[in-house]
Design a protein that fits this description.
The chain has eight helices and five strands; from the N terminus they run ααααβββαββααα. The strands form two sheets. It has a three-stranded mixed sheet, with no helix packed on it. It is 43% helix and 12% strand.
């Protein structure tokens, strides 16, 4: 009788735990955290990348008064490329990597723009590491034009909102070289 009662209690406990775990899973799927958890999962990647504003904090940056536009000089892409000594199919690569947008710029002109997986030219895209390269180039231009005296200057010298805060010790050189530095600066802003 005691064994039967203990078995019944154990089964009810397991059933309750299973219901609670299922409820927590279903709740988690409805939260923005789910997109972060599944960010690079095969079946969710494209959907998540289309909705990065729901995955990570963002804020709009208004464009300046004077906006530079790329010229257009359409040119076909080759169907293959060489990697590791072997010719590879470009379309197969774009399919395999679930590419949503491919933009080719040559000599200041867009020579090829291709959108896939439901994206178009108005879709927001995540730049990932490309942003570091663009930021480094912009800082280099600002140094060359005299807007920044030295990449070793404290960031607070150019972003007054950060003066007196912990990230003031982060210099422009670190911002050019380190994504972690940019993360610290953006959290402090």
């Amino acid at each position: 009788m005691l064994a039967r009662r203990l078995t019944r209690i154990a089964l009810w406990t397991l059933a309750t735990l299973a219901v609670l775990i299922l409820a927590a899973f279903l709740w988690l799927r409805q939260t923005p955290a789910w997109a972060g958890i599944t960010l690079f999962w095969e079946g969710y990647r494209v959907e998540n990348f289309h909705a990065m504003d729901r995955v990570f904090p963002d804020r709009p940056v208004p464009r300046g008064e004077s906006v530079w536009a790329f010229d257009r000089a359409p040119a076909p892409l080759p169907g293959t490329y060489v990697f590791d000594g072997a010719a590879r199919d470009l379309a197969a690569f774009l399919d395999r990597t679930e590419t949503t947008g491919l933009l080719v710029v040559h000599e200041g002109a867009i020579t090829h723009a291709e959108y896939r997986q439901g994206a178009d030219e108005t879709s927001p895209f995540t730049s990932w590491s490309m942003a570091k390269s663009v930021l480094s180039a912009l800082i280099g231009i600002a140094v060359e034009e005299g807007h920044i005296a030295s990449i070793r200057d404290p960031i607070g010298a150019y972003v007054p909102a950060l003066a007196g805060s912990e990230p003031r010790r982060v210099c422009r050189r670190l911002i050019c070289l380190s994504y972690a530095a940019m993360s610290d600066v953006s959290r402090a802003a």
